[in-house]
């Protein structure tokens, strides 16, 4: 069962009130690690308006980690092959022949 973003936010508020803020709030690097993406990906999402920090100055932003994880899940590819090489287009051939070195 997936919780809605509103439910996640209420759970975060309860965690903060109970002194467990570290479970739901984190820096750029902590949020990226929890979501399984690179910090640069979060920066791109911020520049595109897909993600906003809760508060903080540039370079010291604080994120709601469950929201970042949900955004990452929503953006993942639907069909991920088991073998990364499955995306290859087969053997590659040179379009032009190299001149003989002799």
TrEMBL record:
Q: Where is this region: Disordered?
A: 76-102
> Which named protein is this?
MerR family transcriptional regulator
Which source organism? Answer: Streptomyces tuirus
